[in-house]
Amino acid sequence: MVEQLIHKYADAGINFLEAAILFVVGWYVVKMILRILSKMMKRSQIDAIIENFVISILNIGLKIIVIITVIAKLGVPTTSLVAVLTTAGAAIALGLQDSLKGIASGITILFSKPFVKGDIIEIDGYVGTVQEIQLLYTIVMTFDNKMVVIPNNDLVSSSFVNYSHEDVRRVTMTVELHPDNDIPQFKAALMQVIQQHPYALKEPAPVIKIGEYKERSVSMQIWVWAENDHFYDLNDDLWVAIRKIFKEQNIKIPAQQIDVRIQNSDIK
What we know:
- The protein is of the alpha+beta class.
- It contains 7 helices and 8 strands, in the order ααααββββαββαββα.
- It has helices at residues 2-43, 48-73, 79-95, 97-112, 152-157, 183-196, 231-248; strands spanning 120-123, 126-133, 137-142, 147-151, 161-162, 168-177, 207-213, 218-227.
- The strands form 2 sheets. It has a 5-stranded antiparallel β-sheet with strand order 4-3-2-1-5. It has a 3-stranded antiparallel β-sheet with strand order 6-8-7, covered by helices on one side.
- GO terms for molecular function: mechanosensitive monoatomic ion channel activity.
- InterPro entries: LSM_dom_sf, MS_channel_1st, MS_channel_C, MSC_TM_helix, MscS_archaea/bacteria_type, MscS_beta-dom_sf, MscS_channel_2nd, MscS_channel_C_sf.
- Residues 98-165 form the Mechanosensitive ion channel MscS domain.
- Keywords: Cell membrane, Membrane, Transmembrane, Transmembrane helix.
């Protein structure tokens, strides 16, 4: 009887020692795996947000596996424990369904990169610079210094405009002139300003053309290409130049016409 107890406690002690060794080794292996994965992600230039998210999820998952393995080594039934963890995980996933969709959308944006930090985008009437891309939200700072927080679900499921995606951008302007003006003279003066402007690109070539003849006006279309960083400066300078040409050439502006009809009626 005594020998059986000794063997029993000896086996239990050995199992406990093996479980402790398994726990220490497993914990160390998890850290090594995460460290290697982190280095691989950094070499692949994966966004830091994705790296932290993936490492955190793997850290929790691998450590749970280590703990379950150690518990099984101690002779404790793990079937019920695994079932409880599975049920709890399903319940948490169901409760955080919207958040998980947002996280998936954030990962999609960070991987596909339809825009990056510093880009100018427009969505839902807001135009501003991307300040930060998080897993759930993207923060945009408008030009009047308003912070707009946009859920990543909206960015993935709807259309938006990225003004910074290409290196160059076209300044598009429309000017209404009276038909009595010297149109070729106006075009020549404006084209000279454009060709001398340091921000106006030679290729693609600038264009000034008649867009439409109306009853009391001529619509002029002006297209000039510029680098993204100089877009707004060029746009502003061209409007100033057009105003100056208007004064120098005494350009007539089409007068607005209001039709008033008076209907006589017999009042008895």
